[in-house]
Amino acid sequence: MPGPLIVCDGVEFSYAASAAGAPQGGEPGSDARVLRGVSLEVTPGEHLAIIGPNGSGKSTLARHLNGLLRPQRGTVRVRGMDTADPGSLRAIRQTVGMVFQHPESQMVATIVEEDVAFGPENLGVPHAELRRRVRRALETVGMWEARDRPPHLLSAGQKQRVAIAGVLAMQPECLVLDEATSMLDPRGRGEVAEVVAALRRGGTAIVTITHLMSEAAVADRVIVLDRGTIRLAGTPRRVFAQVDELHRIGLDLPPVAALAGRLHRRVPTFPAGLLTVDEMVQAVAARASIPR
Amino acid sequence: MIDRGEHAGTLTAARPGVSPLIAVENLWHTYMAGTPFEHQALRGISLNIYPGEAVGVIGQTGSGKSTLIQYFNGLMRPIRGRVLVAGHDLGRPDVDLAAVRRIVGLVFQEPETQVFERLVGDDIAYGPRQLRLPFLEIRERVRWAMETVGLPFDAFKDRYTFTLSGGELRKAALAGVLALRPRVLVVDEPTSGLDPGAREELRGRIRDLRTREGMTLVLVSHDMEEVARLSDRLYILHDGAVVATGTPREVFVDGARLAELGLAPPEATQVVQRLRARGYHVRGDALTVEEAEQALAPLLSEGP
């Protein structure tokens, strides 16, 4: 089915809810809005990265994408279903799965395989199908061999992959990773990045909320959030070329982008919008000769 | 990359005439010994931390870093091997652990989860109060610790801890350890999970502790850019053993060896090393974006 998977339209949210008719109680206060009218779309199969400083509203926005939070103004629709409609929440959460910073926070069972089976089992998936799903999910994240192990004895990266498998077993169309790699070491991050790449090849949309500019650099599209509003949006190449604006917001550049920007200032013909080590090596090699 | 010049032949980087603040000799540690999950976390580690230096400890998850640093302030006591902290032998049953913990301050990963008082000032004063210091001394220590991490005393001491941002809370937790006035500060992943602005600020504060306060620093981090910028010397741990030591420049120049150990040098270093490998005349030891710019600029201006 064509058309956007998730549509956020003018989403406003405050934890100290003050707006009349807001779903939560709370004392009236000044403008404590964490989200101030955010509109965005997630299209099927795309990889969207959302970046921004602490307190910019990234995680709050992420929690709106599958109805963990509901907007106080504006709407969020997942496949046309309004997250404000309690009757749709079950279907919405099957469509959009979330993985958080601490995988322990979403592990429930004492054995990896049972943990991954927990979600679909509660959906009433028949036994044979359940086993197929659990196996496919664990194979996708490369943890099938560890299916009999207790989760607490896994490394942080392995735990996060099991947490992802638990969500995948629900067969979502979109996976939201809310700083899912921020506590992992480079190897753990590499493991999660491989899983993300495999899911994209399989057509699953990915929304990554991250502090790591190098993670945002590999997305199809980047949205920069600052104090609850979208400041910049576009391809990583375009967003990371806006050096001054990013700096003003308090974000830094991926190292290669920063290096490209500096070399571009020295040598104007040198391309400014580079993101990866490969691109940088190619660009320098194309402009310099090897001395004899 | 291992131990060139004066340190050749040993992985503990001996310095004649200077005795180390922390000396670890042939330290072994086994988790869950005697069970099917038995795991050797440390396999004969020897290393030295000297007064006033900043030492980075790097290695993959599971290499033993976090286990090792728990020995530095006596949270763990050696069963096999020896750990000396300013002469206190942690293996002796009569060791003065309180003294050891005043010498070495340990800041865990995500220390903000250990903030428990309602007011910021009270949380930071907790340690000094346990030491039963006089009121004015406690107040001065708290003031100094807060100013040092960048939480102005008058503005923050009466703030509720739950109103602090993630970065401020992390700084408050760090201040709580600094208020004990340790000679050695051990920090485990001090900037993980912070946004770029807060990360940069905290790194500056940690660097100041070293340069202005003369504090000895042990930094455990997965962020190679951070390690390269804050450390004088690195130890690489792999499978519970020290496999290399040297300055960041010496250690990061051997990209192939690092890759074997599951680590990657900073991206700026990767760029210059890849170009060198292709035959370009470029310094291969750049650690930062600025150094890589300096290294690459001559190539581009003389290009075809």
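qc> Chain B has one domain: 5-265.
qc> done
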